[in-house]
Amino acid sequence: MSSANTLVITRIFPAPPDKVFAAWTREEIIKTWFCPGDGMTIPTAEVDARVGGNYRIVMQDKDGDTYSPSGTYERIVENKQLVFSWKWADSELVTRVTIDLKPVEKNQTELTLTHEGFPETTVRDKHNEGWDGCLSRLATSLQA
Questions:
Q1: pTM for this model (two decimals)
Q2: What is the C-alpha to C-alpha distance for residues 75 and 59, in angstroms, rounded to an integer?
Q3: 114, CA 20 to 30 Å: which among 77, 79, 94, 106?
Q4: At 38, is the pLDDT very low, low, confident or very high (cuts 50, 70, 90)?
Q5: What tens digit of pLDDT does each residue of 101-111 get?
Q6: DSSP labels for 33-100?
Q7: Which helix (H) or strand (E) holds 133?
Q8: Within 10 A of 7 (CB to CB), how many other CB atoms are there?
Q9: How far apart (Å, rounded) are the C-alpha atoms in residues 85 and 91?
Q10: Going from the N-terminus, what domains does the chain have, and what CATH number goes with each?
Q11: Separation of first and last alpha carbons in the chain
């Protein structure tokens, strides 16, 4: 369902919506999963989860290189939706991420991630790889 400018990923997670929501809004939980690879760490996660509040995450690979997205929360509906801007520290490009959460069964949540505003498919596809890794780590984190 992705277009050249938009990426849409839907996954089912083994946790209720409030637990999945907390994984996106609580610094200590973000540090357990918000990077695309097992060889990476999250030394910094700063979150002011309110409309107009900012976030900044620093991912570090095994060579010490860092990758840091940041942005501003535009919409928050507790346990249902997060909308925030997304900007890499080394880029001028600002995109938008929407996280929609929906309970599907007891203790399961359908998460739909929509990331929009990409200038071309190669940028979208690179983000798809990153989100795929992050969401796999989120599933593992939620089972712990």
A1: 0.95
A2: 24
A3: 106
A4: confident
A5: 999 988 999 99
A6: T-SSSTT-EEEEEEE--STT-EEEEEEE-TTS-EE-EEEEEEEEETTTEEEEEEEETT----EEEEEE
A7: helix 121-143
A8: 24
A9: 13
A10: 6-143 (3.30.530.20)
A11: 31
